[in-house]
């Protein structure tokens, strides 16, 4: 763990990233929980997935994902159908309405982040922009990134 005159770097970075992420999630709030939006976003980006594969991608247990999917199906954001290759498994796909919700949430969150970036002094914004490849390199070590 590295500490500097400014304090514990990993702890400060973790806290700042976590708080920024939570703040942006609130900005794009739809009334759905984070797990629902995350699962819907994954399906909008990946296309059709088996329920078990979606649970694995989201890092949650299959029963938890089953409850999330049931709520999203009831809301009209997902479509669920039996897997023709294995009738015991389910395939889930985002509906057009589900994709619209994901697009709207993403747009709102990007607008909020853009507003915050625009409020920074130019030198700070330029420094942050130069740090993006460094943050991306941190993700490269994580295959789930």
TrEMBL record:
PROSITE patterns: HTH_MARR_1, HTH_MARR_2. Gene3D superfamilies: Winged helix-like DNA-binding domain superfamily/Winged helix DNA-binding domain. GO terms for molecular function: DNA binding; DNA-binding transcription factor activity. SUPFAM superfamilies: Winged helix' DNA-binding domain. It comes from the Bacteria. InterPro entries: HTH-type_Bedaq_tolerance (IPR052526), HTH_MarR-typ (IPR000835), Tscrpt_reg_MarR-type_CS (IPR023187), WH-like_DNA-bd_sf (IPR036388), WH_DNA-bd_sf (IPR036390). Residues 10-137 form the HTH marR-type domain. The keyword DNA-binding applies. The keyword Transcription regulation applies. It holds the Pfam family MarR. Keywords: DNA-binding, Transcription, Transcription regulation. PANTHER family: CONSERVED PROTEIN, HTH-TYPE TRANSCRIPTIONAL REGULATOR RV0880. This is MarR family transcriptional regulator.
